[in-house]
Each structure stands twice: as C-alpha cells, then as structure tokens.
Amino acid sequence: MAQAPSDITTAAARVDPDAEQLFQRIMMDPTNENPYAGYHELRRRAPALITADGTLVLTRHADCDAALRHRSLGKGNEIQGFRLRPIPEDRLRELMTRLERSMSFANPPDHSRLRRVVSSAFTHRHIESLRPAITARVDDLLDGLAERPGADFMTGFAQRLPVGVVGDLLGVPEEDRAGFGSKVADQAAMVEPTADADTLSRAITAEAELAAYFSELLAHKREHPADDLLSRLVGPEAQGRLEEVEMVSTALLLLGAGIETTGHLLGNTLHTLLNHPAALDALRDDPGAIPGAVEEVLRFDSPVQFDARTVLEPVTFAGAELKPGQTVTIMLAAGNYDPARFDDPDTFDIGRTDNAHLSFASGIHFCLGAGLARLEVQVFLERLLSRSTSVALAGAVQRRPGLGLRGFAQMPLTLRF
Fold first, then answer.
1. Number of folded domains that form the chain
2. What is the C-alpha to C-alpha distance for residues 252 and 238, in angstroms, rounded to an integer?
3. Is the Cβ–Cβ distance between 249 and 103 less than 8 Å?
4. Count of CB atoms within 10 A of residue 110's CB?
5. DSSP letters of 76-97?
6. Nearest-angstrom CA–CA distance, 12 and 10
7. Structure confidence at residue 9 (pLDDT)
8. Contacts of 281 (CB under 8 A, 6+ apart)
9. What is the pTM of this model?
10. Do residues 165 and 141 lie in contact, with contact meaning Cβ atoms separated by under 8 Å?
C-alpha cells in the first residue's frame, strides 16, 4: 500500500456528520458570497473529512498539495458524477466519450502523450511573444468600455479578451468567434453541483455544438494548415499520436479553460482591487508590483475553488485507508486560506511574497495555460492603470451562481481616460 510523502504532515481523517453538513451547505449554495468563512470552519472541525459515501474532503494546504501530487491519486471515477446527473442516456454517452479522452481526465502515459503535443504552445517564450497582440486587444476593449459609461465589464471585456486570445492561439477564424463566449459559459455549468436538468441540457447542447464545430475546423486545418495550435494537432508531428476524439477533446479543453476561467479571473481581479483602493493606488504608483498582485488575487478569490482525484491504488493518506475508486475532493480555495501556510490569509496583500497558492493546481495536472492567463491579467492591469484617470463600479455587481467556477455574471463599470 502506498503512503503519503513522509515530509507532509497530514491531518487525521475522520467522520463528522456536522462537518459533512457544513461541507454540503458550502458546495450546494449557488449564491454564497463568502465561502471562505465556511472553509475556515470546515478546516477547524474536520480538516480531512470522510463523508458518508466515502469521499475524502481536504481543506489544509499541505494535504491539498500532497493529494494533487500523489501518484496514487489520479483521474478516474470522479467523472462518474456526470452519470448521476439528470441527462438522457444517449446524450450522456456522447458526452462521456469526449470527457474520458480529454487531457483533464487522463492519467500517464495518456496524459503525458496528450500534453506533449500542445505544450510547446505554452512555453514562456511563446506566451511572451503574444504580448503585443494581447496588448492591442486590451486597449481596443478598454476603449470600448470608456465610450459606454456603465457598460458591463464581464460581457464587454472579461469574456471578450480570452475569446480573442484563445481564438488566435487555436487558429479559429475571427468571424466564427462571436458565439463562443455564451456557449462556453453554458458548457461550464457541467462543473456545478447545483446545476438542474435544464441547465445541464443547455450545457450538453453547447458542448456538442462546439465539438461538431471543432471536428469540421480540424478537417479544414488538415487541408489548409497554418501557424496555429489546431494545425499542430492534425499536423505531421502529431500523426499517430492523437485520435480524432482526442483532438476534439483537446480543442474543447483549451477553449473552455482559456475563456471561462481566465474571464472570471479578470472579473475577480478588478472587483478585488476596487474593494481595496489602497492596493489599486499602489499599483498605479508601482506597476512592477502587478505580477505579485495577480498572484494574490489568485490566492484571495480564485475562479477555481475545488478539484477532485480518484484513488487508483490502495493508499494511506491523511490518516485514511483509501481504496481504488474512492474520490478525494481537494478544496483548493480552502488551502489558499490556510493560516498554517499563509500569514493573515484573510487579508488581501499585494506585497505577499511567499504565495504558493493552489489555484492552478499542482503536480502533473498543473494548469497548462497558467502562464497565458497570468499574462492576460497582467497586461489588463498595466494598460488599465497607465491609461485611466478613474475606474469605478457603476452599480451593483451580480455573482455567477455556483461554486465550481467563482466569478461574476455582471459588473457595471465606468472608466475614464
């Protein structure tokens, strides 16, 4: 039986019905404005909680990080949760075929093979080469916001910037991108524990439509290759390494992760800084502090609040004897607020230097697009603060329902240059 790494001090896992009720309330409240207080209470009561169905729930930073890296905890049965949703069998079968061949749900060696094909597009050098194009897009979108006082930042900027950036990276024709934002937003509802049947139906329809689109576009790229990631997926260097369903699943993953999570990171960044005006002023005075501020937003209000792994082989972890097939729920955002790892974690501190947050996960499933997301937010802040004379909310913000992706549905903004 495998063991957790010896240098990790894990909490002793235990059953606690009251703590489990708290966990369920946190996960199932679609309008929870502040889940972080609940995370603190859950960590205090049962930092390694065994639920009635045998799921291990982790809230300490050390345990979360160790679980993300542990070779006995991989991808597998946590995807089975989709099978329990109110989805017609035929539609579910089609969805599962793509999900099960996605990089997000693969283990080595398949995960390594899939990631290797696209990883060259996410090197630091290649991402940095995108800076001029990203800057031009940011300036254009900021101009549009400034012309429409009270415009919604989420639809007018936060959704549109990642669509443009990811569209360029993948090689999606500009004229095809208009509906991507809404389709990806619909598709993202699949990660929400609270999604009802109608929401899930829209999500599956959006996923199927995007899959059909990319299947056709990949066929076009075979005949008309260009300097883009989709052409690389069907190019000579990838021949024999990817099946058709893996190509489509990879395109869907890069599109969804690149648009939805980055868009909510942009919204969370602006909202956090507007609620901390001293930090905003400090960044105006010292733009060199922007990268650190982005890392602190990632820790303080991450778009991705939790992750999951499946036990692949018998393992002792966090004091629990785990069997293959059990699920481990990793509360990333709770780990980001662990006082054993971060000094004064409830305080937003753009000067925080030791900031090993878990918002991009860790281990082999560390977010492939982390560098690109960071660059987009950094360029946004650099251009916003260097060009604007004032930026302020123009009304009440509206949170996106759900905890699977934490962000905003609406954020009216007045921007002046």
1. 1
2. 17
3. yes
4. 14
5. SGGGGGGGGSS--HHHHHHHHH
6. 7
7. 45
8. none
9. 0.89
10. no
